Amino acid sequence: MNATPVGALLLCRADPETVRPLAHLLRERMLITPAGTEWSVLVPEGRAWRDTPAEPAEPVDRVLAGWAAALAVAATWPVVALWWDDARAGCTLASGFRRPVGYVWLADGTPVGEDEAMTTFAARLDLDPVLDVQALQTLTRPDPHADGCARLRRLLGLLTRTGVELRPGLEPGRSAEELREAAEALPGTGRVEWAGWRDAVRVELDAVEGSGLGPWMLGPRARAVATTQVAVGAPLALWGAYRRSGGWTAAGTLLLAQGVLGLAYNEVRAGTFVRETVPRR
Protein backbone atom coordinates (compact mmCIF):
# COMPACT_ATOMS: atom_id res chain seq x y z
CA MET A 1 0.00 0.00 0.00
CA ASN A 2 1.53 3.34 -1.08
CA ALA A 3 1.79 6.16 1.43
CA THR A 4 -0.42 9.18 0.87
CA PRO A 5 1.64 12.18 -0.35
CA VAL A 6 1.63 15.41 1.63
CA GLY A 7 -0.64 18.10 0.27
CA ALA A 8 -2.76 21.07 1.30
CA LEU A 9 -5.30 23.61 0.06
CA LEU A 10 -6.51 26.92 1.51
CA LEU A 11 -10.10 27.83 0.64
CA CYS A 12 -10.89 31.53 1.11
CA ARG A 13 -14.41 32.93 0.94
CA ALA A 14 -13.48 35.84 -1.30
CA ASP A 15 -12.47 36.38 -4.92
CA PRO A 16 -8.82 35.98 -5.98
CA GLU A 17 -8.17 39.71 -6.30
CA THR A 18 -9.28 40.23 -2.70
CA VAL A 19 -7.25 37.30 -1.36
CA ARG A 20 -4.04 37.89 -3.31
CA PRO A 21 -2.68 40.94 -1.35
CA LEU A 22 -2.99 39.13 1.99
CA ALA A 23 -1.57 35.88 0.59
CA HIS A 24 1.58 37.79 -0.45
CA LEU A 25 2.31 38.45 3.22
CA LEU A 26 2.50 34.74 4.01
CA ARG A 27 5.85 34.76 2.15
CA GLU A 28 5.21 31.37 0.56
CA ARG A 29 5.06 30.75 -3.17
CA MET A 30 1.49 29.77 -4.06
CA LEU A 31 -0.95 29.61 -6.91
CA ILE A 32 -4.39 31.14 -6.59
CA THR A 33 -7.43 30.27 -8.69
CA PRO A 34 -11.22 30.68 -8.47
CA ALA A 35 -13.04 27.93 -6.58
CA GLY A 36 -16.71 28.58 -7.22
CA THR A 37 -19.03 31.43 -6.34
CA GLU A 38 -17.21 33.95 -4.11
CA TRP A 39 -14.48 31.43 -3.24
CA SER A 40 -10.79 31.14 -4.11
CA VAL A 41 -8.26 28.41 -3.44
CA LEU A 42 -4.58 28.86 -2.62
CA VAL A 43 -2.26 26.00 -3.63
CA PRO A 44 1.00 26.19 -1.62
CA GLU A 45 4.34 25.11 -3.04
CA GLY A 46 5.00 23.00 0.06
CA ARG A 47 8.44 24.20 1.19
CA ALA A 48 7.15 24.96 4.68
CA TRP A 49 6.62 21.31 5.59
CA ARG A 50 9.70 19.83 3.90
CA ASP A 51 12.90 18.90 5.74
CA THR A 52 15.95 21.09 5.19
CA PRO A 53 19.59 20.57 6.21
CA ALA A 54 19.17 23.34 8.79
CA GLU A 55 16.10 22.03 10.62
CA PRO A 56 13.38 19.36 10.42
CA ALA A 57 10.10 20.08 8.71
CA GLU A 58 7.12 21.48 10.56
CA PRO A 59 3.97 19.28 10.41
CA VAL A 60 1.66 20.28 7.58
CA ASP A 61 -1.35 20.64 9.91
CA ARG A 62 0.48 23.20 12.08
CA VAL A 63 1.62 25.17 9.05
CA LEU A 64 -1.88 25.30 7.57
CA ALA A 65 -3.46 26.25 10.92
CA GLY A 66 -1.11 29.21 11.19
CA TRP A 67 -1.73 30.34 7.63
CA ALA A 68 -5.50 30.03 7.98
CA ALA A 69 -5.46 32.04 11.21
CA ALA A 70 -3.21 34.67 9.61
CA LEU A 71 -5.51 35.17 6.63
CA ALA A 72 -8.68 35.16 8.74
CA VAL A 73 -7.61 37.73 11.35
CA ALA A 74 -6.57 40.11 8.60
CA ALA A 75 -9.85 39.83 6.66
CA THR A 76 -13.61 39.70 7.05
CA TRP A 77 -14.02 36.31 5.35
CA PRO A 78 -13.47 32.75 6.67
CA VAL A 79 -10.69 30.41 5.59
CA VAL A 80 -10.93 26.61 5.40
CA ALA A 81 -7.61 24.76 5.39
CA LEU A 82 -7.48 21.18 4.13
CA TRP A 83 -4.37 19.04 4.63
CA TRP A 84 -3.26 15.42 4.44
CA ASP A 85 -0.16 13.26 4.85
CA ASP A 86 0.65 9.56 5.20
CA ALA A 87 -0.73 9.40 8.76
CA ARG A 88 -3.70 11.78 8.96
CA ALA A 89 -6.01 14.13 7.14
CA GLY A 90 -7.88 17.10 8.52
CA CYS A 91 -9.47 20.50 8.17
CA THR A 92 -9.25 23.81 10.05
CA LEU A 93 -11.73 26.67 9.89
CA ALA A 94 -10.49 30.13 10.86
CA SER A 95 -12.75 33.15 11.09
CA GLY A 96 -11.66 36.52 12.44
CA PHE A 97 -10.24 36.55 15.96
CA ARG A 98 -12.31 33.56 17.05
CA ARG A 99 -10.54 30.38 18.05
CA PRO A 100 -10.02 28.18 14.97
CA VAL A 101 -11.87 24.87 14.92
CA GLY A 102 -10.81 21.71 13.18
CA TYR A 103 -11.26 18.00 12.78
CA VAL A 104 -8.82 15.15 12.16
CA TRP A 105 -9.09 11.64 10.73
CA LEU A 106 -6.41 8.97 10.69
CA ALA A 107 -5.22 7.87 7.25
CA ASP A 108 -7.66 4.95 7.28
CA GLY A 109 -10.56 7.33 7.99
CA THR A 110 -10.88 6.73 11.74
CA PRO A 111 -12.30 9.93 13.29
CA VAL A 112 -10.23 11.35 16.15
CA GLY A 113 -11.72 14.84 16.50
CA GLU A 114 -14.43 16.35 18.69
CA ASP A 115 -17.98 16.09 17.35
CA GLU A 116 -18.84 19.62 18.56
CA ALA A 117 -16.38 21.04 16.04
CA MET A 118 -18.74 20.20 13.20
CA THR A 119 -21.57 22.19 14.78
CA THR A 120 -19.29 25.20 15.07
CA PHE A 121 -18.09 24.60 11.52
CA ALA A 122 -21.63 24.76 10.19
CA ALA A 123 -22.56 27.84 12.21
CA ARG A 124 -19.55 29.89 11.07
CA LEU A 125 -20.13 29.03 7.41
CA ASP A 126 -23.89 29.73 7.62
CA LEU A 127 -24.86 26.16 6.80
CA ASP A 128 -28.26 24.73 7.69
CA PRO A 129 -28.28 24.08 11.48
CA VAL A 130 -30.23 20.85 11.05
CA LEU A 131 -29.73 19.15 7.69
CA ASP A 132 -26.15 20.29 7.08
CA VAL A 133 -25.09 19.61 10.66
CA GLN A 134 -26.50 16.09 10.38
CA ALA A 135 -24.53 15.57 7.17
CA LEU A 136 -21.35 16.87 8.79
CA GLN A 137 -21.81 14.63 11.80
CA THR A 138 -21.75 11.55 9.55
CA LEU A 139 -18.08 12.40 8.99
CA THR A 140 -17.43 11.86 12.70
CA ARG A 141 -18.76 8.28 12.69
CA PRO A 142 -16.87 5.09 11.73
CA ASP A 143 -16.95 4.22 8.04
CA PRO A 144 -14.79 1.29 6.86
CA HIS A 145 -15.20 2.37 3.23
CA ALA A 146 -13.79 5.92 3.59
CA ASP A 147 -10.16 6.82 4.27
CA GLY A 148 -8.99 10.22 5.48
CA CYS A 149 -8.87 11.85 2.05
CA ALA A 150 -12.30 10.44 1.17
CA ARG A 151 -13.61 12.18 4.29
CA LEU A 152 -12.20 15.47 3.03
CA ARG A 153 -13.78 14.95 -0.37
CA ARG A 154 -17.16 14.41 1.30
CA LEU A 155 -16.60 17.59 3.31
CA LEU A 156 -15.95 19.46 0.07
CA GLY A 157 -19.18 18.01 -1.30
CA LEU A 158 -21.05 19.60 1.60
CA LEU A 159 -19.26 22.90 1.11
CA THR A 160 -20.71 23.15 -2.39
CA ARG A 161 -23.83 24.44 -0.61
CA THR A 162 -21.82 27.57 0.27
CA GLY A 163 -20.62 27.99 -3.33
CA VAL A 164 -17.35 26.03 -3.19
CA GLU A 165 -16.51 24.30 -6.46
CA LEU A 166 -12.98 22.94 -6.81
CA ARG A 167 -12.01 22.40 -10.41
CA PRO A 168 -10.53 19.15 -11.80
CA GLY A 169 -7.20 18.08 -10.34
CA LEU A 170 -7.58 19.99 -7.07
CA GLU A 171 -8.61 17.24 -4.72
CA PRO A 172 -7.41 15.73 -1.43
CA GLY A 173 -4.95 12.89 -1.78
CA ARG A 174 -2.70 14.48 -4.39
CA SER A 175 0.83 15.70 -3.69
CA ALA A 176 1.70 19.40 -3.54
CA GLU A 177 3.45 19.05 -6.93
CA GLU A 178 0.40 17.42 -8.54
CA LEU A 179 -1.89 20.10 -7.15
CA ARG A 180 0.32 22.87 -8.52
CA GLU A 181 0.49 21.24 -11.96
CA ALA A 182 -3.29 20.95 -12.01
CA ALA A 183 -3.77 24.57 -10.88
CA GLU A 184 -1.31 25.89 -13.47
CA ALA A 185 -3.37 24.31 -16.24
CA LEU A 186 -6.58 26.04 -15.14
CA PRO A 187 -7.74 29.34 -16.66
CA GLY A 188 -7.67 32.29 -14.30
CA THR A 189 -4.82 30.96 -12.16
CA GLY A 190 -2.34 33.51 -10.84
CA ARG A 191 0.90 33.39 -8.87
CA VAL A 192 1.58 34.64 -5.36
CA GLU A 193 5.26 35.27 -4.67
CA TRP A 194 7.02 37.24 -1.95
CA ALA A 195 8.87 40.24 -3.41
CA GLY A 196 9.87 42.10 -0.25
CA TRP A 197 8.03 44.36 2.17
CA ARG A 198 8.06 47.45 -0.07
CA ASP A 199 6.23 45.67 -2.89
CA ALA A 200 3.93 43.91 -0.41
CA VAL A 201 2.83 47.22 1.13
CA ARG A 202 2.37 48.76 -2.33
CA VAL A 203 0.20 45.83 -3.44
CA GLU A 204 -1.81 46.06 -0.23
CA LEU A 205 -2.39 49.82 -0.59
CA ASP A 206 -3.43 49.38 -4.21
CA ALA A 207 -5.87 46.68 -3.14
CA VAL A 208 -7.37 48.94 -0.48
CA GLU A 209 -7.77 51.80 -2.94
CA GLY A 210 -9.27 49.56 -5.60
CA SER A 211 -11.72 47.88 -3.25
CA GLY A 212 -13.37 51.07 -2.01
CA LEU A 213 -12.49 50.17 1.59
CA GLY A 214 -10.21 53.18 2.03
CA PRO A 215 -12.73 55.38 3.91
CA TRP A 216 -13.42 52.54 6.37
CA MET A 217 -9.72 52.44 7.28
CA LEU A 218 -9.72 56.09 8.39
CA GLY A 219 -10.67 57.55 11.75
CA PRO A 220 -10.21 56.82 15.48
CA ARG A 221 -11.88 53.40 15.37
CA ALA A 222 -9.74 52.22 12.44
CA ARG A 223 -6.59 53.47 14.19
CA ALA A 224 -7.59 51.61 17.35
CA VAL A 225 -8.04 48.38 15.38
CA ALA A 226 -4.67 48.87 13.68
CA THR A 227 -2.99 49.51 17.04
CA THR A 228 -4.52 46.31 18.42
CA GLN A 229 -3.26 44.35 15.40
CA VAL A 230 0.27 45.61 16.02
CA ALA A 231 0.03 44.84 19.75
CA VAL A 232 -1.16 41.27 19.08
CA GLY A 233 0.89 40.57 15.95
CA ALA A 234 4.34 41.47 17.30
CA PRO A 235 4.38 39.01 20.25
CA LEU A 236 2.68 36.33 18.16
CA ALA A 237 5.39 36.61 15.50
CA LEU A 238 8.10 36.40 18.17
CA TRP A 239 6.41 33.41 19.81
CA GLY A 240 6.16 31.65 16.45
CA ALA A 241 9.83 32.35 15.74
CA TYR A 242 10.82 31.04 19.18
CA ARG A 243 8.81 27.86 18.62
CA ARG A 244 10.12 27.64 15.03
CA SER A 245 6.54 27.54 13.82
CA GLY A 246 6.41 28.95 10.31
CA GLY A 247 2.61 29.04 10.29
CA TRP A 248 2.22 31.05 13.48
CA THR A 249 5.17 33.27 12.63
CA ALA A 250 3.34 34.08 9.39
CA ALA A 251 0.14 34.76 11.35
CA GLY A 252 1.90 37.24 13.64
CA THR A 253 3.80 38.84 10.78
CA LEU A 254 0.68 39.28 8.67
CA LEU A 255 -1.27 40.72 11.60
CA LEU A 256 1.59 43.08 12.40
CA ALA A 257 1.81 44.14 8.76
CA GLN A 258 -1.92 44.81 8.61
CA GLY A 259 -1.70 47.00 11.71
CA VAL A 260 1.27 48.96 10.42
CA LEU A 261 -0.48 49.39 7.07
CA GLY A 262 -3.60 50.66 8.81
CA LEU A 263 -1.64 53.21 10.83
CA ALA A 264 0.34 54.29 7.76
CA TYR A 265 -2.82 54.57 5.68
CA ASN A 266 -4.36 56.85 8.31
CA GLU A 267 -1.24 58.99 8.39
CA VAL A 268 -0.99 59.39 4.63
CA ARG A 269 -4.65 59.54 3.61
CA ALA A 270 -5.86 61.58 6.59
CA GLY A 271 -3.22 64.19 5.81
CA THR A 272 -4.25 64.22 2.16
CA PHE A 273 -7.89 64.55 3.17
CA VAL A 274 -7.16 67.57 5.39
CA ARG A 275 -5.16 69.31 2.67
CA GLU A 276 -7.91 68.72 0.11
CA THR A 277 -10.86 69.74 2.27
CA VAL A 278 -9.53 72.68 4.31
CA PRO A 279 -10.02 75.83 2.22
CA ARG A 280 -7.00 77.97 1.54
CA ARG A 281 -6.98 81.50 2.85
How are the SSEs ordered, and which strands pair?
Elements: E1 7-12, H1 16-24, E2 30-34, E3 40-44, H2 60-73, E4 79-84, E5 88-94, E6 101-106, H3 116-124, H4 131-137, H5 148-159, H6 176-184, E7 190-192, H7 197-211, H8 220-242, H9 246-277
Antiparallel strand pairs: 1-3, 1-4, 2-3, 2-7, 4-5, 5-6
Helix pairs in contact: 1-7, 2-9, 8-9
Task: Please describe what this structure looks like.
- The chain is an alpha+beta fold and 281 residues long.
- The chain folds into two domains: 7-191, no CATH class; 196-277, no CATH class.
- Helix content is 46%, strand content 14%.
- It is built from nine helices and seven strands.
- It has helices at residues 16-24, 60-73, 116-124, 131-137, 148-159, 176-184, 197-211, 220-242, 246-277, and strands at residues 7-12, 30-34, 40-44, 79-84, 88-94, 101-106, 190-192.
- Strands 6-5-4-1-3-2-7 form a seven-stranded antiparallel beta sheet, with helices on both faces.
- A hairpin with a 3-residue loop joins β4 and β5 (88-94).
- α1 runs antiparallel to α7 (197-211) and α2 (60-73) packs parallel to α9.
- The model is unreliable at 209-217 and 272-281 (pLDDT under 50).
